[in-house]
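Weekly structure sync, notes
Attendees: PL, DS, HV (note-taker this week)

Item 1: Vitrin
DS walked through the input record. Source organism listed as Pan troglodytes. Sequence as pasted into the shared doc:
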Amino acid sequence: MRTVVLTMKASVIEMFLVLLLTGVHSNKETAKKIKRPKFTVPQINCDVKAGKIINPEFIVKCPAGCQDPKYHVYGTDVYASYSSVCGAAVHSGVLDNSGGKILVRKVAGQSGYKGSYSNGVQSLSLPRWRESFIVLESKPKKGVTYPSALTYSSSKSPAAQAGETTKAYQRPPIPGTTAQPVTLMQLLAVTVAVATPTTLPRPSPSAASTTSIPRPQSVGHRSQEMDLWSTATYTSSQNRPGADPGTQRQDPSGAAFQKPVGADVSLGEMDSWKPGSVLLDEGLVPKEDLSTQSLEPVSLGDPNCKIDLSFLIDGSTSIGKRRFRIQKQLLADVAQALDIGPAGPLMGVVQYGDNPATHFNLKTHTNSRDLKTAIEKITQRGGLSNVGRAISFVTKNFFSKANGNRSGAPNVVVVLVDGWPTDKVEEASRLARESGINIFFITIEGAAENEKQYVVEPNFANKAVCRTNGFYSLHVQSWFGLHKTLQPLVKRVCDTDRLACSKTCLNSADIGFVIDGSSSVGTGNFRTVLQFVTNLTKEFEISDTDTRIGAVQYTYEQRLEFGFDKYSSKPDILNAIKRVGYWSGGTSTGAAINFALEQLFKKSKPNKRKLMILITDGRSYDDVRIPAMAAHLKGVITYAIGVAWAAQEELEVIATHPARDHSFFVDEFDNLYQYVPRIIQNICTEFNSQPRN
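Item 1 (cont.): predicted structure, written out as tokens:
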């Protein structure tokens, strides 16, 4: 009996060992069969914004064609998360327009994002945004695991558009089923159940197995028991015929949270939600920020291109509907590329035919989106092609304060002409240029050899544009090539340093008054001279970037009353002139000219015209010839105004050639005011007679 018992024990032990060895071998075989999953790079579309992706760092593959301006990018190098991920990659130079893999890393939000044009993409400016990202080449870091499936912050995952299967299964409501409070152990059980590859029966309307888990609620439904969390039903759909393994939780109010395929429901995921937060396209935004955080950022415009722009578009009958649409498309592309906004460029449109008509002025639309919508609604007027009449209309009516014209912003007109104008443009354009308007011409399909006899004004474009150096003229042989003018046009109109016609006779000079304060003038007459200086100053546009004013008073000695950089507004300058005190003494005009050259004009800006206006009432005690010649050689345009006992021959020596345009004599101080209009006219005539090449 004892032997039998021992034999049975040995058999049991033997069977146990066999089963143990079989299990070990089986586990080894299973381990061999389980291969390490290969990392697959998620693909996204060009329109996917970084803010929609929750992952802090990830590698993605972008398709070709993301250089298109419809994919908005905000910033340079560091981009606002409202930007297109792939558009930013092209802008940064990491990708070209053929697409490819990139590494994206989220960083902190910035107080401002500067727009720029790079690699065929015009990025926009943005005042601030709560989250940013940078784009790098797709070189994975050692030891860093990148997600094969991205986690999105919206129930409509953009990944679905790029080929990922993230369809949501929404369980139909079942009568009599109520959600029960959940415990931590139940939540853990659900986590394990989802991760375990167990086949579950399909739920039926009569009997369904439900398990409650917490979920993020929509704003305004805060649970007392779990603060943000409430309860909802969760049902596996893995065994449902045709069902996708993606999951979705639905609350009674209809707010849904969807998980991408392959993601596990876990406590780690729940911990990523923050109380008081709601889902928005750009990421998680605290509830208290909702009143100030806009879903669609409104750009203030590109401050590096602050211009007031008017497009004159050809609406003549001969252009036809198809070419008119091509013309509108160019305007829409320009509106997009310029980054329209109150701190940057503003744009209006005038259509011409027989007569011009304004579609919208500078202040009608203050962002690119609204402007493009308005351009799309423009209809063709028909008629002739009266360009000269349209330019006159814009000069007189368009650039006014009531229409949104801004002081300090260059005025630019871009004229599109199909063929040739049916009226003359030279005189209208000259008046526009003298008003400070920079005229650009885009000519399409010029006159053929047998049509030139019908052209009203040969070489009309060169007679119209601001300068004839080629900078202001663009020509295309065919309407189908009009889109090629977009980039050079945008670059040129934004190059404010080269907008030469913005510089007028009234806003582009450093003017130094050299005032005789000798004893023969007297206190009363000196105040009259100061009033004359005031009347002249009032005619100019005064600012740091426009005309600047300085003043020197002299007797035997010289005194700098104020320099060009002392005052930068017209009221301040006029008050400073009033405060100049009468000095009294002798008359050393030659020394005064030398002093003005050294103390005033030596500090003049290189791009300013230098004007010296000297007022004296007598013959100088010293020589004026050498100082006057020095002034002329240094490019200082000198006006000499003599009163009473001033020597006419000295005035002509001091004045710039021709003396008849730059020297004036008046017998009494009280008659000085009569010469103000003539002096201003001569200054402007001389300015506008400069060569335009």
